[in-house]
Amino acid sequence: MDKLWPTALILVVVVLVFIGMWIGWRRRARRDAGLVVPSALASPGAAILSAEALHVGSTHHDRPLDRVAVPGLAFRARARVDVSEGGVTITSPGESTVAIAAPALLGVGTATWTIDRSVEQDGLVLVAWRTGTADASGDVIDTYLRVADAEDQSRLLASIGSLIAENSTSGADDVAHDTNTGSEA
User: Fold this and answer.
1) Minimal CA–CA distance to 74: which of 119, 133, 13, 115?
2) Which of 68, 114, 167, 171 could potentially form a cystine with 64 if both were Cys, beta carbons 3.0 to 4.6 Å apart?
3) What is the pLDDT of residues 123-181, one digit of tens each?
4) Helix, strand, coil share (%) of the chain residues, nearest 5
């Protein structure tokens, strides 16, 4: 009987923590419900590169601890990243496909940490892009990808970088930079 009250108290605290987590996730999902994330490229063009990666997380720009809660970007998952002339497509099993049109790409670089993941120096690929249309009306999202093969990571950085260079607009070149290693992307 003397162990019943401490056990009950611990159970109540655990239940309250889970309820708080559930409420917080629902609030985040409502906040991000207005984000427009396309699931297909309008004109994909010729394929440039395909790489296997881990989608570590996607956050609001320059806020690497503020995860977005939209289908295809909300959770960590294995992914295939396809780069084509029309943009970048991220496909994860069981998740919505995320299609980022080339004009919506704002920057690419490397990072060392985000949300709940820390890796070796420059171990993550950071892709900054604008949701919705390519004009200035959408929100800027940072997507973090972990590519296991260093050569694939270099090719992914170069191919996305070339898309950005081809489609760069005034003022977009400084948007993506690595905020958590101090180096410029």
Assistant:
1) 115
2) 114
3) 899 999 998 744 456 789 999 999 988 899 999 999 999 999 988 754 444 454 444 44
4) 25, 30, 40
pLDDT in tens, 71-86: 888 888 999 999 999 9
Q: How sure is the predictor about 1, in pLDDT bands with cuts at 50, 70 and 90?
A: low
What token pair was written down for 84? 């084509």
d(CA 129, CA 149): 23
40: its two tokens: 């297909």
Cβ–Cβ under 8 Å, residues 105 and 98:
no
One-letter amino acid at 73 equals L
**CA–CA separation, 52 vs 81, rounded Å?**
6
Q: Token pair of 127, please? A: 């892709």
As given in the structure block, the two tokens for residue 81 are 């990243």
Which are the contacts of 139, defined by CB distance < 8 A and separation ≥ 6?
Answer: 35, 60, 61, 130, 131, 132
